[in-house]
Amino acid sequence: MLDARRWFNPKHYNRLWNVGPPGLLFSVSVVHGLHWAEELFRLKTFSLEGTIFWVLVGLVVVDALTLLFWVLFSLPPKERGKNLSKRGIYGFIRHPIYTVIIYHMTILYALSWGSFLLLFFLPIHHIVWSKIVKKEEEYLVGIFGQEYLDYMDEVPRFIPWF
């Protein structure tokens, strides 16, 4: 018989709702809000057609999928929350899934809608997510202690080598 306490830890359940889902909801809401404002005020947009559009979209999608699959191989689900992984993608960036949300999602929307406003929003998006992720990092320091603090000094949050 399954031990419910082993599978449902309120501490981990509450943490789940502190960063990822609300951050994703925030990002999608802001991106759609900016697009709505761009449409309402008829702000200047750009148009990419044909090959250049599909090449850019393809590059962004391939990069995003590479990050997401690399996450699966770098930290298997059964090890999450138990071991601090510094291998694979986690040797380059601490939050690869959030990187996909912040950059790849926004860039794909901007390309699809031809939105200059969304591209100019990227630095602000990065700053807001940096503030949001601090809560998760405090949680991880609580779990892994000095090891995670050292990891934070060695590995950047979202963008490798930056």
Could you please describe the fold and organization of this structure?
Helix content is 70%, strand content 0%. The protein contains seven helices and no strands. The protein has helices at residues 4-7, 10-16, 20-40, 50-74, 96-113, 116-144, 146-154. It has a single domain, classed as Four Helix Bundle (Hemerythrin (Met), subunit A) (Up-down Bundle).
Short description:
With 162 residues, the chain is mainly α.
Question: Can you give keywords for this protein?
Answer:
single chain; mainly alpha; Four Helix Bundle (Hemerythrin (Met), subunit A); 70% helix
Poorly predicted regions: 1-9
User: So, CATH architecture?
Assistant: Up-down Bundle
Which CATH class?
A: Mainly Alpha
Give the helix proportion (percent range): 55-70%
Helix and strand content put the structural class at: mainly alpha
* CATH fold field value: Four Helix Bundle (Hemerythrin (Met), subunit A)
List the helices and strands and how they pair.
Blueprint: H1 4-7, H2 10-16, H3 20-40, H4 50-74, H5 96-113, H6 116-144, H7 146-154
Helix pairs in contact: 3-5, 3-6, 4-5, 5-6, 6-7
